[in-house]
Amino acid sequence: DSDNEAAEAPQELYLPGLLGANVGKKNSNKSGVEDSKVVLTPKKAKELKVADGDVVAIIGRRRRATYAIASVPSKKKGSNSNCFISHNLASNLRIRDGDKLKVVALGKDAADAEERSGDMVLLTKDAEVVSSVTYSPIEDSLNNLINSEGGDEIEDEELMERFIEPYLNLEDDGGSVVAKSGSVVTMKDENGKTLDFMISHVDDGEEREEDDDTVVAGLVDTSTDVIVGGATPRVEVGLGYDSVGGCGKSVGLIRELVELPLRFPELWTTAGVPTPKGVLLHGPPGCGKTLIANALVEETGAHVVVINGPEIMARKGGESEANLRQAFEEAQAKAPSIIFMDELDSIAPKREQAQGETEKRIVSQLLTLMDSLKSNSNVMVIAATNRPNVIESALRRPGRFDRELEIAIPDEEGREEIIKIKTKDMKLDDDVNLHQIAMDTHGYVGADLSQLTLEAALQCIRSNVANFDVDSEEPIPDEALDRLVVTNEHFMHALSC
Ligand code: ADP
Q1: Which is deepest, 155, 158, 223, 386, by most CB within 10 Å?
Q2: Which ligand 1 atom sits closest to the C-alpha of 247?
């Protein structure tokens, strides 16, 4: 039975360079892992043919990759994890504690990795010295530093001498590796004060086509032109999975089913099995199927092609099939890609139930397209439906939508998680008890809870509107805005709607 099959996590596949990351705490360099280092256990290092001080390539998520210096302490106490990295490095690579990253020794393996078609990340072949790198202090961090020192501006020259030069440690050969632009590193002065910088530009002196995916990263030495850039705002990392509440297990499963094959297709090739092609998400409307698909797209950085069932069926005379074909072609050309088919039941009802010739042709076309997808093409098809039972059963066979995942109505705990997510940017009064609201909303799905919190916020605005002079040309004063606090009463009103 396919439902039981879906409930089992695929077996963990083994590849030596694929490691579970143990990520250091935010703002803590106490664990001793610097932002440009990856700490490996001696055993792992030996297996990967990496020695202390070697430069390695690390591949993270969302097409993030960089070089790092391997650090191989003779003994790593109290942990059986193979790989430690700093919080900054993890967020630069878009990974979280426990996520998989890949460590590749440079040289032959790196070249192989680069030549492998469909690879999500292309690093330059070897870690070469870059011609210039620009470090821009991050605004909030710089302001904190300035405020802690009496409020005087800090000149670029001082930033260079106090932070950047010691960090790069160029005199004693040191140097460092630089990550691709957009990465954040924390630097420390001799008094232990810290300042966060963003690598705002890295140049390796090569001219590149606009659509070249190569990640420019490399080493810094005395020939590198090091520049202090203007202060830059902190860019928060988009956290797609964090927008989904109450489906922890399903999200974990779908990450294994979709994210791992897109990132590391070689796991499947090495194990001698085809990568999964399609995942069918099913469950009642409003439980988060579309939300989960969006989170996957956001978090994998894959190209996405959306096929909306009813929309595609509304096309006339062969156009629907042509659209389907185009979608698959686009996905293959821009791989790694995710094809998301919403309301699959409207595209592919059981053939015996399909009304006309058109519907039958479209189902056949879809079957053909699924079959023609090569298993290593780095294209994943995710479909969503509220009615899995009306879908053409041929589509649910191996090599097509061979995995199915139910996204169910949330339980009390799930509801509380969802309400927390939906109210995270709201100012809540102390009398609001989210746990109680979760208990009172039996049967509500995510979409209902989203509506509920919206209604509570609207009620809050309504009850405060008398305090505002709506005809005034002036912006609403801050004190008035401060009074926009959502109370239990507002929620009670929303619940009674
Ligand atoms: P489905 O595709 O299952 O019909 P959607 O993903 O379109 O449902 O959900 C509609 C909206 O409801 C989402 O945009 C989101 O705001 C909210 N929602 C639904 N499920 C969840 C969930 N599990 N966690 C957080 N929000 C949810």
Answers
A1: 386
A2: 23
